[in-house]
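[agent] plan:
  1. take the single chain provided in the ticket
  2. run structure prediction with default settings
  3. attach structure tokens to the ticket
  4. add a short note for the reviewer (M.T.)
[agent] executing step 1
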Amino acid sequence: MSEVVLTLQNAQIFQRENLVLSNVNLQINKGDFVYLIGKTGSGKSSLMKTLYGDLPLEKGKGTGSIVGFDLNTLKEKEIPFLRRKLGIVFQDFKLLNDRSVFENLFFVLKATGWKDKDKMKAKINEVLSKVGMETKGFKMPFQLSGGEQQRIAIARALLNDPDLILADEPTGNLDPSTSVDVMNVLKEIHESGKTILMATHDYALILKFPYKTIKCEGGELFEVVQQRAAN
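[agent] step 2 finished; step 3 output follows
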């Protein structure tokens, strides 16, 4: 049987006190790649924030678990531990501009409890190599293109060998050809065995890289049957 990484049952997703999605039923298994699509305001971001602990899944509003954590009973002090088991990639990179690429990644490892400097260095080199950025560790983020910065953000998401990668509009600030480059990186990471849930509004990418697609619309979540792009 497949290992379940994420499950939501009859979940109600709120943005502050506004109900944005109701009766959400979702299951993602280890090794899946799933797109989450929908217009701005359809509830995509609120759903993502609920999954990484930014918004609560209130008791009595459905049930959910992610990478072994119960979303109904998730306490604030548990959120850092949840996020160590998740790799989160944001639209706006969220890199620290006052330190180099290497120092950005070193900072994350230190913050998540790594102590051995040789192992930290080896891990940083490993994740930079996975995203094709092994020669850029000495650079400052502002010296990199948008696509390169997003590759670094993906490398950062891989540091703690996450059970699930949540990519929230990872190509949203990138031009079409750079978006394809970043998607190729995510595709390779998925093919190496990683599980990915990616929120996007880029339908061209979905056609070019077809995977299971779920849509937020009219306050509900449902699976979309895709047409494959002609080569």
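[agent] step 4 note for reviewer: Residues 38 and 216 are 5 Å apart (CA to CA).
[agent] ticket updated
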